[in-house]
Design a protein that fits this description.
The protein is built from 17 helices and 13 strands. The chain is an alpha+beta fold. The longest helix is centred in the first third of the chain and has 18 residues, at 26-43. It has 4 domains: 3-110, no CATH class; 119-162, Arc Repressor Mutant, subunit A (Orthogonal Bundle); 165-299 and 360-474, Alpha-Beta Plaits (2-Layer Sandwich), CATH 3.30.70; 304-350. Helix 6 packs across helix 8 (147-161).
């Protein structure tokens, strides 16, 4: 393949365009454009503002629904740029221009790998894990260091460990429902067909298939009353027996995100021995930390569709200023002043519908599990309490139980796996579906999904007829 034949979609060039191959596969071209945008940002060829504008256009690509990638929010780093260029050179050297090869060249460059933590970085990470909304000055005072040192640590943690400040959002406050569908494909049904159908469905937020099995899950987000929910649920029921052998549809009622860096000494992780007591019902569970748990409270008065869009921006970047969000909104065709954005942020905070957290990787938590746990209410509360002892976890709480993602060190993976699998032997736990080596995947931004919704003074809405998932999977 002659890279000289490559013609970029966007009107800029980079010093590395000779490494970008010409491809016919639209999906492969999507990742190449993401790579070009990132390299252009690193070289100063385009501004971050321009990158955000291009990222908005990339969201229209069908591949974005399958694997949401936004180059404008990737950390600009000489180290990451070098990895990406090295991977592109490898593709060129061996003439590897398939979708899988190009996708791997991108994803491996940004994959967070284990890297040693400086003692000061560990202290800073520990502080913000416990105080995700604190400022650099707060951290400096608490840790008895200067703010500049905190800033350098944050930059290092972003580059080496993918540090990100974010929020979980109670979407029900805006009248928006969140669902997660676990499924097993029927015999003869191809995953590629199901993935394409789910990607075309305008309310799909994320899609994931397990390795070496026909089990997968997809998450969905849409507004409306019970008639809309019924239309969506009915369409899934029509798929059972034809597309899906079995399904469980979880309706979100809460969420929790916790990190226990106290188990980490900078070199290795300890196993939380108290966790074994989850199986001993005579031992009460740890108290659920309200600062790490957010229950869905239903619609809140005074919140508008614009407030939802602003909350979506905070989910992408929990430290984004009102001015930065204003600029992002303008690229979306929404004209708001910075003071108006700041007022909306205060209003959202006052409603108590956001849960702050920090995400990171590369600290020895190399094994990922996802457990679908269908259980009664008492066991849901019990497992939620004990999950706070895990090194890193995210719980999607539902009307059927919970979906629990955990990140653990490989040296303890068998012990964690057996412990959670054994929950299935307890009365009140109906079943535990484990998914190994699958991390919590990325998802389409909430404001991207809202492009398919209708906004009015009364909030968001959609016509029930468009919620028929079966139309996309038959």
């Amino acid at each position: 393949m002659d890279s000289d034949d490559y013609h970029p979609i966007y009107d800029f060039t980079t010093p590395y365009d000779h490494l970008i191959p010409a491809v016919d596969d639209p999906a492969a071209q999507f990742y190449l454009e993401v790579i070009r945008v990132y390299l252009a940002m690193c070289e100063g060829v385009i501004s971050v503002r321009k990158a955000v504008e291009i990222a908005q256009r990339l969201r229209e690509h069908p591949e974005f629904a399958k694997h949401p990638v936004d180059p404008s929010i990737l950390p600009v780093s000489a180290t990451l740029k070098a990895k990406l260029i090295e991977n592109l050179e490898t593709l060129q050297r061996y003439n590897l221009y398939t979708l899988d090869a190009i996708k791997s060249a991108y994803s491996f460059a940004f994959m967070v790998t284990d890297a040693p933590l400086r003692p000061v970085d560990l202290r800073v990470l520990q502080f913000f894990s416990e105080n995700p909304e604190a400022t650099n000055y707060d951290a400096a005072e608490a840790l008895n260091i200067v703010p500049r040192t905190v800033g350098r640590s944050i930059q290092s943690l972003r580059e080496r460990h993918g540090l990100r400040f974010s929020y979980l959002i109670d979407t029900t406050a805006f009248g928006i429902h969140s669902f997660m569908l676990f499924f097993k494909l029927s015999d003869g049904v191809r995953w590629s067909d199901v993935e394409s159908g789910l990607a075309d469905f305008p309310f799909t937020r994320s899609i994931l298939r397990t390795t070496m099995s026909e089990t997968g899950y997809a998450s969905f987000l849409f507004p409306g009353n019970e008639n809309r929910v019924h239309a969506f649920e009915s369409s899934i029921n029509r798929l059972v027996g034809r597309v899906f052998e079995q399904v469980t549809l979880h309706s979100q009622i809460g969420m929790a995100r916790t990190t226990a860096l106290s188990l980490y000494d900078g070199n290795r992780w300890a196993f939380p021995e108290q966790l074994e007591s989850v199986l001993d019902t005579s031992v009460p569970p740890p108290r659920i930390d309200s600062n790490r748990t957010l229950w869905c409270g239903g619609p809140k008065r005074g919140l508008s569709p614009l407030d939802f869009v602003i909350a979506s921006q905070l989910r992408i970047d929990g430290r984004a200023s009102a001015r930065k969000i204003r600029d992002n909104l303008r690229l979306m065709g929404i004209d708001m002043s910075a003071p108006s954005v700041a007022y909306s942020i205060r209003k959202i905070r006052e409603r108590g519908i956001m849960l702050p957290f920090v995400a990171f990787g590369g600290v020895g938590l190399s094994t990922n599990f996802c457990f679908e746990i269908v259980c009664d209410e008492s066991w849901k509360q019990r497992i939620l309490g004990f999950s706070q002892l895990l090194p890193s976890s995210f719980a999607y709480l539902s009307d059927h139980g919970m979906i629990l993602w955990i990140d653990v060190p490989s040296m303890h993976q068998v012990r964690y796996y057996k412990l959670f699998r054994s929950l299935e032997n307890e009365n009140g736990v109906h079943f535990v579906q484990p998914i190994m080596t699958v991390g919590l995947s990325g998802s389409r931004p909430m404001d991207d999904l809202s492009r398919h919704w209708n906004a009015s003074d009364r909030g968001w809405s959609v016509d029930p007829s468009v919620l028929d998932l079966s139309r996309y999977l038959y």
